[in-house]
Amino acid sequence: MKILGKFPSTRLRRVRNSDWVRRLISESNLSANDLILPIFIRDGYNKIEEIKSMPGVKRYSLDRISKILDQAERFKIPMIAIFPYTPEKKKNNNGLEALNENNLVCRSLRLIKKKYKKFGVMTDVALDPYTSHGHDGILINGKIDNDKTLDVLNNQALLQASMGSDVIAPSDMMDGRIGSIRKYLEKNKFVDTKILSYAVKYASSFYGPFRDAVGSKKKLKGDKKTYQMDIRNYNEAIREVGLDIKEGADFVMVKPGMPYLDIISLIKQNFKVPVFSYQVSGEYSMIINAIKNKNLNKDSIYESLICLKRAGSNAIVTYFALDIAKRIKSI
Ligand code: PBG
Prior knowledge:
Elements: H1 19-24, E1 35-42, E2 48-50, E3 58-61, H2 66-74, E4 79-84, H3 104-115, E5 120-125, E6 138-140, E7 143-145, H4 146-162, E8 167-170, H5 177-187, E9 194-201, H6 208-213, H7 235-247, E10 251-255, H8 261-270, E11 275-279, H9 281-292, H10 299-311, E12 315-318, H11 321-330
Parallel strand pairs: 1-3, 1-4, 1-12, 4-5, 5-8, 8-9, 9-10, 10-11, 11-12
Antiparallel strand pairs: 2-3, 6-7
Helix pairs in contact: 4-5, 5-7
The chain binds ligand PBG.
């Protein structure tokens, strides 16, 4: 690339010296359209409970969930993502609660889709909220079985679609998920159900607070390195995304966000498909705790999101979604 211009005929500060000109030449923007709001749900009545490791984020019982959904609608959030906290007694080795049509996710989908028409609802397709060992798949002789888990996931995806889920998000990073679920949805006439593939999800330590939030942390023995991606890898992300697009994904996700900006940019440049990123629980906790301790100010939230946009994200899953949507509106 040729560098043009020479001081003093070129002074780059000339186009930085007032707010209007900075706005005029801004290369990335963040609006409510870019935000996906994750919501944690739980059993019981009249419960809105704090999650210790994620200050400001709460778990809602279904009778109180309108408190947060009304705000999502008011601030024009285009999509929410539901994550269930499953009581221990409903977990087993095979995660069969995933297929219960009255499980928490199914009940919440029926309720939300009846009352709220303005945003889409996305649901995770994976077994980790439901397994007694905390892994995303079925454990057979100490190994996570790729293909046996797939049968359960097909049915979990179909069940969620039939309850009204708009976007199915297979998140276990095992092989053959997208193709198999897409085929199964087509066969059952769910041709409009969208699939968001967690195509590039790293075996990251930044998921710690989330596992707390959904109650799978204490349970998890070992790590998820046999299915989630190696944090040292770059080129492998291209293979993951390529396969999932071929198999029928509508959107792909890179996760976590800020530690993987190079990957977001790589995927955006190589594939002309919508790329989402996930600012995960550990990123949220880091920033919110630094703000609470007065090590950072609140502008750090915007900065942590705009960098994901600059890298190439079309939309961002973030626990700051409502907070930032309110702030954008008031600017
Ligand atoms: C699990 C799942 C995880 C997250 C979303 N879905 C965690 C994991 O893989 O253990 C993490 C989200 C976050 O950390 O905010 N299928």
